[in-house]
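REVIEWER CHECKLIST
Item 1: Sequence provided? yes
Item 2: Single chain? yes
Item 3: Sequence as submitted:
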Amino acid sequence: MKFVEGKETSYIYVMNTIVKRKHLFFTAVLTLGYLSMFAQAQLSANLQQYLVAQHKQQTYKQAVYSKQNNVVYIGAFLKVNKDLQETQLTDLGVLIGTKAGNIYTAQIPEQKVIYLFKIKGIDYIQLDEPITVNMDAARRSSRVDSVQNGINLPMPYTGKNVVVGIIDAGFNYNHPTFYDTTGTLLRLKRVWEQKNGGTPPAGFSYGNELTDTSAMVAKGYEVNSFSHGTHVGGIAAGSGFTGVNNLKYRGVAYESDLVFVGIRPEKSEWKTAGMSSIIDAANYIFTYAKSVGKPAVANLSWGCSIGPNDGSSLFAQALNNLCGPGRIFVNSAGNNGDENIHLQKQFSSSDTVIQSFVTFPTIAGEKRTWIDIWGEAGKQFSVQLRLFNGSTEQSVSGYFALNNTTTDTFLIGSNNDTCFFTLTATANEFNGKPHILVDAYSKTTNTLCLSIKGVNGTTHAWLGFVQNYNGYYGEFTSNNQPWAVNGDNKYTLGEMSCARSAITVAAYASKITFRNLAGTNQSYTGYGSTNQIAPFSSRGPTVDGRIKPDIAAPGMTIASAVNAYDVSYAPGGSNYAQSVAVNNFGGRNYYYAEAMGTSMSSPMVSGIVALLLQVNPELNPQRIQGILAETAFKDNWTTQNPDSSRWGAGKVNAYAAIKKAIQTVGVETIKDDALRTILVFPNPNKGFFQLELVAQSSGLLHVEITDILGKNLGVKPWKIESGTNVLPINFETENKGIYFVSITGAGIQLVKKIIVN
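Item 4: Structure as written out by the authors:
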């Protein structure tokens, strides 16, 4: 037995050599003596594993790093209380980002992490978890075209006066689809490149902000080796300018204002992106929108399978604190719907063990995976690891109990090669649940078997690994052993999609074929079917039993803009087979290409949410979730009682949702007779007049001005209070004649004629 004391903490390694069935099993246990000595902050499982790697002078590859002014930081969430003195953080060089209630995002200098443990006022420190991308006919299928054309609606809805924020990577700032429909005005208002050096935005200490349109146009792109953000942004809000008739590749909210937050650097300087940076990004979007008096929707088409999947994480808590009326967050459901990455067991006194084999994905020539296991609050479970050569057991560990330790472990296989583990066992996590996280790296040809033992309660386990923004997944399998079980594809949404305030979007196929620029017909027949749920679309529900996803939208073979600086979509490039159109603008070729994933269905719904916010800027996440559910389209493929774990409420129906949103404008507080007593004066006028209403209670009205041909000249929300309310109207026109003011509330449309002389 060997004891090794750390220099700055009282970490103690205990190396045991244990003989098991004539095969060696080694384990090194890390006891967090420093933590128990000061007993201030609880550490997440991945932070404990980071500390093990740091103590061994190894790089923990799964941390979310960034580099600023030659200082390396790791991303984290801090759960704080009233005793915190922020100067204790800033004195250590910690960069505080978003403060979402009692949840802070932070960038911590790598060499100062251990000093946070003794700061009074920090309850929990969670290391960031890396995330991965969730990678025409769609507008018709979701009824967006009827909304954009204003068919039997008070006006066409196009996202005007709404901010659409895209949190992603691979942005092409000067792509013509981000201009208006005439190609003269760039609608991009703000850019925050989180991973690039420069001038950070106000309230943050990292990244580079662009606020000047000419600077955005001159720079052109965030990174030149990726297109995901451009494609997602084009779906949510692209104008389609330079597309066929400036229409074919038009997005949903094509007159909205845009804000882009880039969460990824060039591959050569990659440090990955994590959950705290997403909270900062959403906060940045909402803060800008508030500064210009507009509602906002933020879209994220990234995810991670690791976490409790019950909406209890610090990320979910922070997001719930950020979202509210006019502040909406939309997330893709994930692409693990056809992968058995989940394992579930309900234990009893007579049924105490579940066993399954774990397959490893190959990542840059290495076999790696995370195994993330969560139990039920107040219940106990333990874990054992074994190696098998076919059906013959080669080496075996003991059972790891929930003893609040991190253990470095390796098993020796039949070829005398090794399977390494770092296993962190926590009896009581931030959400009160027991938790074991295994980081596994296998160099042996033997198969790994996981055994979980308990006498009551339920455990859920997930597989996944993220490296360089890509997700890699093995599966749980019986390996044809009668005593082992297969995993399943349930509960595979990922923790970010399980947040209560997030609108989580599944994907279905609005089409499965297309013709590319090379003239070749591409088809996914045999994998997916038109109108059916996409096989890859992840499944709910949440572990705590809530319906997720919320809604389904087109997400298979969706055409949108791609980054013109990403040469993979040009002739000879690796993605050229996906390119379907190219147009020249300003001397450069700009491409449109097909892509599929819940990455594509999420921005469809984000665009629709922008249209809803145009109707009523005060809609909150719960009301929007309700509207989407109440108006969801059901057909022969969803059935009239859709499987909510796949479809949510059904297929999104933008047209019905807009009609429902119009009905909600003031529906709870404004009576019909009040609408009919609105006064317009003076009338006739010279384009300057007032609306007056005496109301019994507060509410929200929707005011629109049109000319005699129905052309929209302006839209304005009117928030009224009990008593006399006056709304000044000033619309500039040199044309005398008849105009109309449409006032909508309580499901009624009232039109007043005005004369401009």
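Item 5: Key structural point noted by reviewer: The longest helix spans residues 598-615.
Item 6: Recommendation: ____
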